[in-house]
Known about the structure:
Layout: E1 2-4, E2 30-32, E3 38-39, E4 57-58, E5 61-62, E6 66-67, E7 75-76, E8 78-80, H1 92-98, E9 104-107, E10 110-112, E11 117-119, E12 124-126, E13 142-145, E14 149-151, E15 156-158, E16 161-163, E17 172-173
Parallel strand pairs: 1-2, 2-4, 3-5, 9-12, 10-13, 11-14, 12-15, 13-16, 14-17
Antiparallel strand pairs: 6-7, 8-9
Amino acid sequence: xxxxxxxxxxxxxxxxxxxxxxxxxxxxxxxxxxxxxxxxxxxxxxxxxxxxxxxxxxxxxxxxxxxxxxxxxxxxxxxxxxxxxxxxxxxxxxxxxxxxxxxxxxxxxxxxxxxxxxxxxxxxxxxxxxxxxxxxxxxxxxxxxxxxxxxxxxxxxxxxxxxxxxxxxxxxxx
Length: 174
């Protein structure tokens, strides 16, 4: 794998690891031992799943968004459907900021935990289970965890799981 900041050097602030395809057997793909954040976005990590802390990356590494295929054609974990598959976003809020009313924000399966998400546009946010009833046969959930959702526009949330463990009184505010 690749280690940035070895030997006590803080090189992450001026380094980036982007546009790479990691294949083969790695104990670790990218590690950062320096204090600064390392930009490791838009890489293909060897399969379609999102990069995992500990096995794919360690330290202060930003690995989202990423590519889900070696041809660099489909980004994850979040996309705006109307903008094409190659542009991804690392957070729901960043996708909302880039979207316009009427667009669809698509979430891959996995966990999403952010500061409160302010949904101020008439968009659709859909997970992998969009259109599937709650007790139907469901794919890997897009789970929004311990995050308050503040709706100030007529938006649609479909096919995601809202999961709270911190006893908040305001998981969804409309």
